Amino acid sequence: MKKLNRNQTDTWSEMLALGDIVARIKGLRVPADALTWHRFSGSLLLVLLVLLFLSGAFMTFYYSPAPGAAYDSVDYALFSVPFGDVIKGVHYYGWNIFLIVMGWHLVRAFIVGAYKSPRQLLWVSGVLIMLLIPALIITGDLLPWDQNGFWTTQVRISIIASVPIVGDFIVRLIQGGPLTGIVALTRFYVLHILFLPALLIFLIVVHFHFLKVRGLSGPLFKKESQPETISFFPRLVNRWLLLFLGVTMALGIISWYWPAPLGDPADPTDSTFVPRPEWWVLFLNQLVTVFKGPLTVIGSVIIPGGLVALLMALPFLDTSPERHPARRKTVILIAVIVAVILLGLSITGYIEHFNENHA
Amino acid sequence: MSKKVIFSMIICLAMVAAGMLFDAGEVTGAAKQTITAAKVKNAPSGLDDAAWQEAKAVQVPFEGKEQFAGKKATVDTKAVYNDDGIYFRFNWKDATKSVTKGAWQYDGQKWSHQKGNEDRIALLFEIERINKFATKGCAVVCHVPAGKAAKDGKFGTVTAAEKGDMWHWKAARSDPAGFADDKWLTKIGEEKGGRKSDAGKGGDTKNMTADKSKPMYMPAPGKKLAKNDILLVAHAVEIKDYTGFKAGDTITFRMPNMPEGSRADIKALSRYADGSWTVMLFRKLDTGHDDDVAFNPRKKYNFAMALFDDSGDENSYDSEVLTLQFAR
What we know:
heterodimer; A: mainly alpha; Cytochrome Bc1 Complex, Chain C; Helix Hairpins; 13 helices; 69% helix; globular; B: mainly beta; six-stranded mixed barrel; three-stranded antiparallel sheet; 2 helices; 7% helix
């Protein structure tokens, strides 16, 4: 019987002309610590991404990208479709956790100097992925056509419009006109479900390509012996599936007990509604508060843009081969100062926008 | 390309990207009061049931309009629910208990209507989303033609796809029967407004003769007047002999019918004491009727309220739109 199954598999592989690929996957070896208790953020990001894709795909079955119908279609998917709110919750909590894990992934890579040669482009592709995620969130926020999504988009559009030279052009491009209406919603929808995911997949493929070719960052101190390896299939895949199962269950339970919010339907005539900034942009929001009037561009473009540029250029600026953080004191000190400033701005932003006792 | 050129390009791209991705908002979302229905094991059986202690009271402000313009009122609102039903309790100050509703009075010579209306409280939920109700409240369903008085206004939605569920507690016309009048709201017609009665029987019957000069019914033998000294249709009998009445006698003009069908969904208990009304309205979470909102405890609902102090429809105190949510 066992032999028969094996023959069948072989036959199917041959029929599908996948024999070589199957053999290569079976023969693939990866470092034993590719997915362990102390190195899991990359795998977790992949798990969350798959869940985001699956939950997003579910929602597209019910979604209608027209201002008069979008809210009702989301409301229907949430409350009339069995477990619809749980699936929406997985999507909602998924990207929030994705941002946190992505931040941790970046911090870890920075601390252990994983961006250093020969992994410079692995780092750059990761930073590009990091920049793409907010674009997905921004386009996704408008889709339910609720008050928060609509008015948050208005704020974002006004800030994009304030970017010198290209601001107005970008707004016209993404909004399709002077108002956020059906054209804008359609464009945001297409960007959210088609172009941005396609770009994300492309960048992930690029990231994995560099990961495979350049390898994971090794231990900080070189060992004499050869690093241990495990098979990609089934060992690593099984670990990943276990992680997938655990995260799915955890997110499902969270979504069941704390459903994802759906605000009131968007009312473009209700200018009294002023949205709260999301947690991950509190520091950026505070920067705009600090730099006002003609200096707005400093807080909205120059400082954030400079930070992103610094992040992308890091492997080309810090070229020493030393990876241990204790021997990279200058770089670590600069990073700590930047992190403290960003954290401080976020805390003041939180106090200003969320603390009800704040005057 | 040299490393410097690549580096410069990366910086430029990053600057534009950061500008595009920048996200911010301001201060806070529009203030909207939320009534949180507490989950209870046993439904409250009365106005003072211990179950009400589970719910947090919300002071809902009301603004007067027309006759009450410039005046304010506050309704202390609580809500609880269990697996089967939802229960609201409202308490508001009212110096006068008004249940007259044009009751007949005999002066020894002839019958005439007493002056006075009734106290009421009304709630409006959405069965099917009413455009901008979530932000504008009842204002979007009250249509007063240009140049006309408020009393000439029509109450209803703009399209047939928008449907409202109206709970209308009336101190004289529904409460004595133990119910709130269950209505629903649809598109305003050519002639009439969009306010409709739920399927079934209910409402009230005018107690008057064909020539409208005197009452036609009185309490049947052995039947007592209901709460607030109101004569129910079920307890009424036709008056055969008017000679037995003496000066000062009064008889209900608007006699409540015992509701049936979907119109009998909302039950009511009430008490007027110490210058305030306490009213409890309760109903199944899902009545199974198309003319009622079906409450799903996982969802939030917008609703608005109106208070009538011995007044007609145009003279009311209105609340802003509120949110009803269910505690888990």
